[in-house]
Amino acid sequence: MVAATKKLDAVFNALADPTRRAIVSRLARGSRTVGQLAEPFDMSLPAISKHLKVLEGAGLITRRIEGRVHHCHLNAAPMGQASEWINKYRTFWEQQLDSLDRYLKQKRDDKSKQDWNKKKKSTTRTKKERP
């Protein structure tokens, strides 16, 4: 259980950064070299390499080395595990929000009834007070 939690934490940590999410998006369209991944970013290759190490540590990418060229490939399985975790809690929160919605509708209906009764009593008094 602890190992699974650490893996999930690593995935969420890796995906928390916009640069790493952009890298994952590019890799979703196919494998790329480190140089190709670095092209759209205004940062050094060592900085990109640090981002790639975080993604590798989370199991989101794998590298294949051919000579001096590093090819990166997306491994989407850890994102599937994160998605399962999110879906589990989505169901919980949807149930909580549905319950809150029912409660608020009941309160609104009760308030409408009270307002209607007050108005009815006020109208009845006014009629009785007339000569």
What tags apply to this protein structure?
Arc Repressor Mutant, subunit A; elongated; 131 residues; 5 helices; mainly alpha; 2 domains
Folded structure, characterized:
This protein is mainly alpha-helical. It has two domains: 2-75, Winged helix-like DNA-binding domain superfamily/Winged helix DNA-binding domain (Arc Repressor Mutant, subunit A); 77-124. It is 73% helix and 11% strand. Strands 1-3-2 form a three-stranded antiparallel sheet. α1 runs antiparallel to α4 and α1 crosses α5 (77-129). The longest helix is centred in the last third of the chain and has 53 residues, at 77-129. It is elongated, with a radius of gyration of 29 Å.
Quick summary:
The protein is mainly alpha-helical.
Number of strands: 3
For the terminal residues, how far apart are their CA atoms?
81 Å
Main sheet makeup: 3 strands, antiparallel
Number of helices: 5
Strand order of the largest sheet: 1-3-2
Secondary structure elements and their pairing?
Blueprint: H1 2-15, H2 18-28, E1 32-33, H3 34-38, H4 45-57, E2 61-66, E3 69-74, H5 77-129
Antiparallel strand pairs: 1-3, 2-3
Helix pairs in contact: 1-4, 1-5
